Amino acid sequence: MNFPSSTITDLFKIKYPIIQAGMIWVSGAKLASASANAGCLGILGAGSMKPDLLREQIKSAIRDTDRPLAVNIPLLYELAPEQIQVALDEGIKIFFTSAGSPKKFTTKLKDQGCTVVHVTSSPELALKCQDAGVDAVVAEGFEAGGHNGRDELTTMVLIPQVVDAVSIPVIAAGGIGDGRTMAAALALGASAVQMGTRFMMTGESSAHKNYKDLLVSTKSNSTQLSLKELVPVRLIKNHFFQLINKAEEAGASKEELIKILSKGRAKMGMFEGDLSEGELEAGQICGLINDLPSVADMVKGLLAEYQQTLSLFK
Amino acid sequence: MNFPSSTITDLFKIKYPIIQAGMIWVSGAKLASASANAGCLGILGAGSMKPDLLREQIKSAIRDTDRPLAVNIPLLYELAPEQIQVALDEGIKIFFTSAGSPKKFTTKLKDQGCTVVHVTSSPELALKCQDAGVDAVVAEGFEAGGHNGRDELTTMVLIPQVVDAVSIPVIAAGGIGDGRTMAAALALGASAVQMGTRFMMTGESSAHKNYKDLLVSTKSNSTQLSLKELVPVRLIKNHFFQLINKAEEAGASKEELIKILSKGRAKMGMFEGDLSEGELEAGQICGLINDLPSVADMVKGLLAEYQQTLSLFK
Known about the structure:
alpha/beta; 2 domains; 14 helices
């Protein structure tokens, strides 16, 4: 396998420069351990787990793989400090933090000997992450599912600018889901790719079957960036999406919008399979993906297509 | 030079799979002939030219190069049929049509022995272009400057889906401006790249000096997709942008918005250099580009960086 850089595979001690994104309700022990066993970095998405559940999930993942595992901590949730403590207690050494300031926990985690990665959506924020002492950044484009930046920079224009702005390794995210998009992201200067939707659409993710089946037939234009003023998030345009958009258009206050959002809508949609009333996060790349393989088969197919793509340039 | 496909270089009889986009007020005879002489396809942007001026510009471009030249005809303007006739009269054999139905002129142009390319922004529209008989499509992502699609699909997710949907060659546009982004676009399956902002930011483009100087220091987040309901267009966020956005937010009718747009604002901004009151079209990639070289030097540098990018995968 020819990869242009080994900075990320060396940093995480993984075989392939592929990161399975930490996603709420979707990336538990089963997905993280399967990803790790397939040679990628597996990440437990702590955002949707209370500390006890997170502890149980970390223990379970460690039982199922002897490879490195990481935890993603969205810093916008109150439980973040507790989640970090649980992960440290359970021996997690790689942390992906997002949705908050990289200054908040980086020093504490580095002092404990951990590797820290922060998610960013602009060259300016990437520089702030570097200044805060992180080991690498995830640069996530406009096409990515779930929470997103305000600048609307796409992966194509974001990655080379972040690569130019910082001296630490850059992990590309947003719009990556097959061997071609992986090759493209590495050509842009990324040292690795992070994929969310592609890993969500596997047998091992904990997305509900209803949701997985919907994603198989979903087109790229079925998603839209929503709640741009409050917290930009890319969603499938279902009934809940219409509801929240109408409320926003009608001038609902931040508090009212948070109230609609907070009714366990993400769990209802992605974990419990209510495709109408639930919140369904997905990236634009869902339009390219039409199958639900095992993680091992998906990674195998993706790497074969990646090699095939490179061979075209010879 | 290793390019994964020769379908576009063969189709247009050009050296490199690089297309200089047809842009209103910016791509006249000087830019098109310089692009052609540098081994790319040079395109005259007819959208901002009355038929007599277009005739003069085609004659002038042909005087300055013996390489193939093309004309871009935005079909939303009334003068499109006349512009096409002028181009045919002057011996133009390659037409890029955009902003309208590919069914409108493709058969007529093909009957005259011309090569026809239509600009699209979704896999579904690309299929319609193929059905209309075009020779190739330009697939243009959300990050592109100027007129844009409604689906907001980025180049990263759009190109592989269009490549999978059609059997004709695909030219990638949107977010391409250096050797890395070119390599990425070709990895996605495109047979060539089309660049607008990068060619606008050269000595030979007819963009006003004020505008070129502004672009050198402009960041990617200085642009935004505007007028999403009427005709989505990516603009620099200047005073005119605020004006049109406020009018739209205040519920201005389509007619009122067209009235504001039609006051020669694009000419005022891009051609006459009024950076406050004029309409300034640019792609997100402007943030990556910080120089104003000659076309020949720009192409040379871009190809060197492209080769350098490929060498990283060996």
